[in-house]
Amino acid sequence: MRKRTKRREDAAEVNMTPMLDIVFILLIFFIVTATFLNEEGIDMQPPPDEAPPCPDCPAPIVVQVTEDNRIYVNGVITDVYRVISAVNRFRAESAGAAVLIEANNEASHGIIVRIWDDMQANAVPVSLRRAEEDG
User: In terms of pLDDT, which residue wins out, 55 or 26?
Assistant: First the structure.
């Protein structure tokens, strides 16, 4: 005679507690790291210059960048790669002249930054102002 064994039906049980712990830890991690993301940038609109102009200083060399990214150095059109050589030519005529970058709001920021970096690399004093809108 055979003995009948009673089989217990195994109850399938999934313990969700460890998974919820991991989800909450990830949520806290992403919330904390997202609050520290702060991008730095160049302020394209500097505060107005309130210092009176120097009477003995030469007139600044104006580098204009238009909305369609055309570059003018004292009214003469030039290429972004030739701005520093054009500025050096004008600085040879008036020693110690500073450069004023007059940029339109619609101009490419990459071009403006490239011109700024070229001036800084060649120890040319430079400042930036927003171009006045026509009309």
Answer: 26
Residue 29 in tokens: 């991690």
Sign of dihedral through CA atoms 61, 125, 107, 43?
negative
Helices (H), 36-125: 83-93, 109-121
User: In angstroms, what CA-CA distances link 117 with 20, 30, 33, 68?
Assistant: 51, 36, 32, 21
In-domain check, residue 36: no
* Model pTM score: 0.58
pLDDT tens column, 73-131: 999 999 999 999 999 999 998 888 889 999 998 898 899 999 999 999 998 888 888 87
Contacts of residues 81-84 at CB distance under 8 Å and 24 or more positions apart, as own/partner, are: 83/115, 83/118, 84/118, 84/119, 84/122, 84/124
Order of strands, sheet of 71-73, starting from the edge strand that comes earlier in the sequence: 76-78, 71-73, 61-65, 99-103, 126-130
The enclosing domain of 91 has a CATH number of 3.30.420.270
Q: What are 39's two structure tokens?
A: 């991008």
Pairing outcome for strands 99-103 and 76-78: unpaired
Range(s) of the domain holding residue 77: 61-130
